[in-house]
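Task: complex structure prediction.
Instruction: return structure tokens for all chains below.
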Amino acid sequence: MAVITLLTDFGLEDAYVGIVKGAILSVNPAATIVDITHSIPPGDVMQAAYYLETSCGYFPHDAVHVVVVDPGVGSGRGIVALKTNGQRFLAPDNGVLSALLSKGTGEQAVMVENTRYFLAPLSRTFHGRDIFAPVAAHLSKGMDMSVLGPAVATENLVSFRFPEAVFANDRCIEGAVISVDRFGNLITNIRQKDLMKLCIQNQPSELKVQIRGRTVEGLSDTYKSVPSGKPIAVIGSTDRLEISVNGGHAADVFNATSGEAVRAKV
Amino acid sequence: MAVITLLTDFGLEDAYVGIVKGAILSVNPAATIVDITHSIPPGDVMQAAYYLETSCGYFPHDAVHVVVVDPGVGSGRGIVALKTNGQRFLAPDNGVLSALLSKGTGEQAVMVENTRYFLAPLSRTFHGRDIFAPVAAHLSKGMDMSVLGPAVATENLVSFRFPEAVFANDRCIEGAVISVDRFGNLITNIRQKDLMKLCIQNQPSELKVQIRGRTVEGLSDTYKSVPSGKPIAVIGSTDRLEISVNGGHAADVFNATSGEAVRAKV
Amino acid sequence: MAVITLLTDFGLEDAYVGIVKGAILSVNPAATIVDITHSIPPGDVMQAAYYLETSCGYFPHDAVHVVVVDPGVGSGRGIVALKTNGQRFLAPDNGVLSALLSKGTGEQAVMVENTRYFLAPLSRTFHGRDIFAPVAAHLSKGMDMSVLGPAVATENLVSFRFPEAVFANDRCIEGAVISVDRFGNLITNIRQKDLMKLCIQNQPSELKVQIRGRTVEGLSDTYKSVPSGKPIAVIGSTDRLEISVNGGHAADVFNATSGEAVRAKV
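Output:
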């Protein structure tokens, strides 16, 4: 009952996701395949990295996570298999694993180069089908990562830093919106633990969250803490500050999207 | 091979659905998870109730149906586990189970309160992940509902009545559009059995269906009963009257959507 | 671990796909169901045929492929079960299997008429649920096709020819765009093997691809062969010529869609 997750920018309009699943099941018919999402904007590696980080911990420890957000497909970019915290990840070496590197236990990585586990002939444009699918399926059957290619030190993998919120002073954190969900919730990079520092000498009710020239007062427990149509600041499900509107769509109400500056003050 | 179905307003753009599936598989790796749909408009409890009613009967009897259309998440609303006709349902106590209540056999319900089966820490905004997923997974493994919390009489659950079609007189039923599907079919709340009453003394060919000032004549057998581009009235797959256009999109042709008044006359 | 694939025009907004899966699992709880896509434009049989042809070969040999793009549902059109190359296909007899006919080994076909394997009562508008789902589930359990109905010679099935590229002369192939994917890639019906004939006396770098009055020079190895924003011609994952834009959306850049004329010259 090995789980393989898929996180891609393929969308669901074409047959690409289905083909990848066929190629997986041709190697491991017993795999349980789960879509994390296929709606990553084409080539948006940072968005994929955020979704991967906030998803992977909820899957069984022996899951294989496959990320195919791969604008460099067919160029010289490598493919990496990473093991950390018991889970395995297969992704282009383009930084999409950045949030996972040097954090877990038992971390090891190899470059995926052994063509024995690839489909042949190998296309230049669809490595999701020809490399990621069969390799993930073999891993899900218990194949050791080491047969895939040479070990690589994780500090040599492509990596980037996520934009992090910073303390402007001990009463003010400056951050940004990093994701907008279907409900219009504005998810920021301001973390609960940092908000708690602001609130050591102050009550959560004294918090002021500023975005696009407007201020949301206080930290609420739930979306329903305010009248319908009113904005609130809440700690969301990834332990980050979110700006929401009860029964509404905060991104529309504030005319804000990813990248928008957000300030939390007391 | 326990089946768990998911019916939510999460959409497929974000990672929420994938995360819920991970949380299910972490408890029951053998679960077969099926999406009913995740495209319910945010918070549209009545639409979800309609989809649930028209779907659940086609699943295996031991399925666990999970509905997370939950605008009250994190507020005081309860969560209910319902058993009826052998199937189990897990949903917010917000009326989404209304169509199922007091109809089946062996009906019993409990309030879901036992935190032992929840993820910890429990977020305030994502009970799909933290409560619905692990509880459904435990139920799918055969756990008895009674351990989840206190029994509740189903007449004490939140419930609403669907708008039902009514006989204005013995030759006329007044109803409404209750759903529009991808093909533009206008699905009404006028049921086949009531249409048959109209037609006891009259032929189906004498039926007149009125919507937005226009009249569709006769009851057709199939979409192809009329020339391409012409409207028809048919009995759809849920035994309700539907207004369709052969090869076209009735909702566009009639400029109609959910809530529009529909009259069936002889 | 029998695989059943689904290729429909149902979309994911409604509950139709979920209901079909429920009806499959009610017959074969052990089936592994894979979505190829449900985003076929309503009734677009040719698009479905293209996706089926380019997908089915990547699935396990014992897969059952179900196609429900069926504008004639409820009319007199037949339903066909086809076996070829070890795989089984279930589809309306409307030409959607054209690309598979008379090509594989062990080809046999029957008309699906035995109501014993249908749901009862049988609706007139949702054969995906009432016929395709249970019949596919029975096939996936190993039921022999011959019990479904009378054998039919595949030359008597509805069939159409895909628009094929042609050699205007020995230095020029005239074809067309046949599909546009999420990334905006323009997939043509000009095949690699024909391009290779053009290039016997010429280098791939001398190839000129013309579309909407513009010319793309040379055949590239990967999307990254040119600067960001520049167009390229590549051999795509189905061994057909594709016109792409590095980091961009060729369909928008060229203002082209399916049906657009494309010429490859040396």
